[in-house]
Every structure is written in C-alpha cells, then in structure tokens.
Amino acid sequence: MSVMPDPLVQRREQMFPTLSADQISRIASHATRRRARRGEVLFDQGSEGAPFFAVVTGGLEIVQPDRDEEDPIIVLGPGQFTGETTLLTGRRSLVRGRVTQDGELLEVGAGALRALVQTDSELGELFMRAFILRRVGLIARGLGDVVLVGSRYSPRTMRLREFLERNGHPHAYVDVERDADAEEVLARLGVCVEEVPVVICHGELVLRNPTPEAVADCLGFNASIDVGKLRDLLVVGAGPAGLAAAVYGASEGLDVLVVESQAPGGQAGSNSKIENYLGFPTGISGQALAGRAFAQAEKFGASVAIARTAARLLCERKPYAVLLASGEVVHARAVVVASGAEYRKPPLERLPAFEGIGVYYAATPVEARVCQDEEVIIVGGGNSAGQAATYLAGTITVGKEEKPIAKHVHMLVRARDLSESMSRYLIDCIKDHPRITLHTQTEIEALDGETHLEQVRWRSSATGEVKTCAIRHVFLMTGAVPNTVWVDGCLVMDDKGFVKTGSDLSADELADAHWPLTRAPYLLETSMPGVFAVGDVRAGSIKRVASAVGEGSICVQLAHKVLAE
Prior knowledge:
Largest sheet: 7 strands, mixed
Number of strands: 30
CATH architecture of the largest domain: 3-Layer(bba) Sandwich
Distance between the termini: 57 Å
Strand content: 25-35%
Mean pLDDT: 93
Shape: globular
Number of helices: 16
CATH topology of the largest domain: FAD/NAD(P)-binding domain
C-alpha cells in the first residue's frame, strides 16, 4: 500500500484498515461481485450515489483531480475499501477511484451499506471511523472540489469560509491580498476583484459573490433529499437538540428530515472546546461533536438538508407544513422546533459595518486565523465566551512551532464577576491565564475604523473610566435571542419570544390557542399537538449541550405517542 504524506499519519491504519477474510465474507452477503479491469474509473469527482467497493483481488487508486493532473491519495489493495462520509450523506464524490490491477471487487450500494453499518456493529464501527478520519484528512489538506477566492476585508468571504469549514467540506482558499497567484486566477476566470468572493465548483462552474444556499446547491449538499415527501418527523435546526432528535428518531424507525440554515452544530458548533460534556474528559470542539452527531444521524437514515431556512410554520394545515425560504414546502406528521437562539447584538452605531471584518459571533479556526498575534476583545460572561477566551489565548501549531493565537485577550462583562453565569472550571482558567485580562462592569461604547475595525472604546461603569484601544477584533457573545420568527402566530411564547411547552402553558393560554385535545400537552409539546420545542429555543431550557441533547432524545418518545394517537 502506498500512501501520500498525511497529517493523520499516526492513524493511517484506522483510516485505511485491511479487512479479515471473515469481514470480507460478511460484506459479500450485502454486495455484488464484479470483475474490474485496469484503467476502469469506478467513480469520479462529482459522481452522485457512488457505491462502496471492497477489494478482493487486484487494486485500485484514489486520486484528486486537479485540472489536467491528479494528486495521488492512496492505492488500495486486497482487503481494503473505498469511501468517506459522502457515502452516507448521498453527496457527490470528492475524489476519483480507478482500477490499477485487474481483479475482483465487492460493490455495495448506499442503502445496503447503511443496513450493514446498522446491523454489523464491528464493521459499522470500523467503517464509520475510517470514513470520518478520511474526511478529516481531506479537509486538512484542502483536497476537495471547490476553490474559494476571497478577501480578508470581505465579510461575505468570512461567511463562506465559515460555511464550508463548519460543514466539513474540504476546499482550497486563495486570498487576493496575500496570494501572489490570486490576480492570475481571477484573470483566467474573467472575474474582477470587486466580484469576490468567488467560488469555483468542480473546477468549472464559477459563482460570483454567492450565497451559502447557492454554494450548497452547486456542491450537491441536498441533491439526494426529496423535500416534497411526507415525513414522520420534521426537525427544524441541527444544533445538539435537533441532531439528537434526528438520531433517536431515525434509529427508532421514523422517517426524519432535518432542515438547517447554516451548518450542523448550531451555536454549540462554534465553540472551540466543550469540556463539561459527559464522556469527553479532555474536551471536544463543538464542530467535532456536531460532525460526529451528523454522521450518526445519516448512519441511521435521517436526511439533513443544509442551507435551507424555515420561513413559516403553516400551522393551519394537517399534516403540518413548513414553508422554506427557497419556496419549497415540507410536510410532516410531527414537528420539532429546534431552531435555537442567536447572540444579542448591542446597540452600537457602526456594528453592522464591521460584522465579519472585525466583529464576530463565533471563535472557530476561521476567526483564529485572521486575529493571530493580535489583541482581541470578547464581550460576554457565559460559558461560550469563556471557551472562546481560553481558545484564543491558547496556541496553534505553525510548522513545527507552537505559537499563540491571540497576543492578548480582553474579556468585557457587565456584571461584577463571572460566578453567576460561567462554570467554575472556566472561571479558574481565565483567572490564572497570563494572556487573559477580565474587565468587570465594563461595556463597549463605540467601534471605529475605515475598511476594517481599527479601534474600540469601552467604559467602566464602576469607575467611569473611558479607554480607547487599537484593537481590530471583537467577539460578541452576549445573551440570546430566540429564532422564532417563523413560528410567530402559531405557538404560544413567553415575553422574550421563547416557545412555551408542557406545564408552562396555562389553561388560559391553551384555551386561546384552541388546544383541541382532552389531555394536557406533553412535557416538551407546544400549544399545538404534535409540535415540540427543544433546546435553546424553548422557554425555561437549561443552556447546556447535555440538556439540549437530552431534550432532543426525550421529545422523540413523546412524538411516538402523538403519532400513535
């Protein structure tokens, strides 16, 4: 087996394991045996529904097409197999597979592969681990079917970079300010600098300043999903609560569709490191947790539509329907509202002008790259703010060196201390960190700059002191505003816009909502039978990942009851 240099070389045996004769035999019961001739292309970059292949005899190579050339990835021999996470998601293949030696292969279609993964625990674990690690390897090397040409001074570029990274889609990035070849690339495409960001799909299709929805369509994120099909369960939002509902619902035989406007993980997906989630004693990034949950949902057969935004719940219909911003209408017998919440935006005059070019609402590797070796401000006193502070005050590997991400982190909070809003382990980390300074009873007053944020003015309410600093990066993580506009007029909400459920709904509220049943709403059920609310969007919810996952799993049991009525 010949392998290219890989950032995950230590886990190469897990990425490209060799199956035993017994394992090959178990795959054969789900497969079609076929002969393969040298030079035959089994699947190509952009192929939809590419099958899984296991090599019995002979060999095949996996390569990355690059214009008129190919980048070799791996040569697979007897006992080895093809595939990464696109086999389960139904998305287009990112690589090309070609036979190098005449031989025999086992070919398994997507449906049969999913059944095999679900019923054979040993092979299921082996395949899932290999698929996920292979995708991580492609991301680390930027081996995908898309090139993003953009500018560090463009908020639209930042938005697309974050969209691709949080969806785990490998891509190459060309910066027009830093890359010497950028002008040549744009000239060859007939694109002006003013038209960036530019996305090149499959080496051919050029999208000028596209929306995430257009990029998702170009890359075939949702090509295999039938949106018009009546579902047992429609989940709106793919944060921890929504993904949990998808995993438990699909694993228990429900036909589940999830619609997500951005990327799996929700607000938790932007957390750099979650250290208080059960089962991960060394912590896990929000994106890694979301990626695993997404793969798990796909494993059990849930469909997840990305860059699809719920515009309105059509609650006057039965079965229920949700109108998407794309104009499509999704029908379902039960609905889970898991659309989460967004950080509240402070009333700063020039805030919109600096969003994405100095003001950010997440601290992921995308943002970390643009603020490396600079001072940053984090506004907020919750766990997300604390996790962002410790992440940005940490280090990254550059070549063979460990270098700080941010030169210094200033935390600004309105309260006297962090004890009421942040977990103790984070408070201790912040207090003892030499590159974090906590400014209590302090608020930002103004943002200033021309093409990018250049300076920030803040005031201490305790002393009245006003300070202006030349800081170019501010992370806002202040409070939460629920994403409930799309259910307004259908569901009962509290005075802050969060959806009320179960015993929190008063008799008068149920009467005004014309609750039609003799029974009371179930624990997580809203003022409409069969519509549930879970996670951050629900009134009274505990804003923790573990709580959201618990609610998502519980509501599936309640949905079963409703569907049986």
